[in-house]
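job 3f2a | input accepted
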Amino acid sequence: MRPTVSIVIPLYYAESLCPRLLEALETLAQANQETFNTEIVFVDDGSKDRTFELIRHIQPHSFQYRAIRLARNFKSYIAILAGIHYATGDYITFLPQDLQEPPALVYELYQELQTGYDVAWAVRRSRGDSLWDRLTSNLFHRLMHRIWPEWPKTGADMFMITRPVAKVLQGMQEKNSHITGQILWSGFRQTRIFYNRQKRKTGKSGWKFWSKVELAVSVITQFSYLPIRACTALGMSLAVLGFTYGIVVFIARLTHSIPVQGWSALMIVLLLMGGFQLIFLGIIGEYLWRTFDEVRKRPVYIVMEEVIVES
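job 3f2a | predicted structure (311 res):
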């Protein structure tokens, strides 16, 4: 009996992309029908256009599909988790709606898992994006790699996992996290393949600079104590410097070598210390806010509609 590969596709304002996307999925399913059955899990992440209506009425020939509509935009990471929850395949992967990751990677990742691995990553060798997108993306992934050496330097946004890994991800139920970090953290036997990311043919990316900054903050605070430890180290260094300077001032006072002037130096010290304290409080606040968000136990996502169609 052939295994089933579930392909999760998060959708957000994808009305204009649907025809090309569905054509590519039919081609992919037909090309691999002798190797595995294909299940597509569409996740409409709160689109306000006709995306879900188009998906609801498609008539696939080579694959079965499920479509769920989230009550609002929960962001792509949560949409992928929702798709993994609804997927029924033995292997689970995902594709972006713009198809910048070649659909042929699904077969390559599947073949890689047949060699005994639980997770297969598709690591970008190059990308056909704008210079600004390349710079910001490289900055993000290199920062993650410095903090977490297992994180690929060029990014690995596409993967395929086995059913046991999917069960672990479903059990995490974390809101302010990132699926790449969760899979790396979980361990399992992992491998990589390399590919060239294609240039976007239609539309514009919704993945803006500040979205990457927000994601970086979430990943760092979710998987690393480095900011807190950096604050501790810097605070101790400043305390030592302050103590040393205090001794110098005390000795100078005893020797009557302190001039009346000193207001500017005092203000600089106060402003620097005040600035550092606000930064430290901000970092601590990021951890506290995420802790508060998790302990409220609100659902990670809310499904408004569900459609199941079997070929």
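job 3f2a | The two ends are 17 Å apart (CA to CA).
job 3f2a | closed
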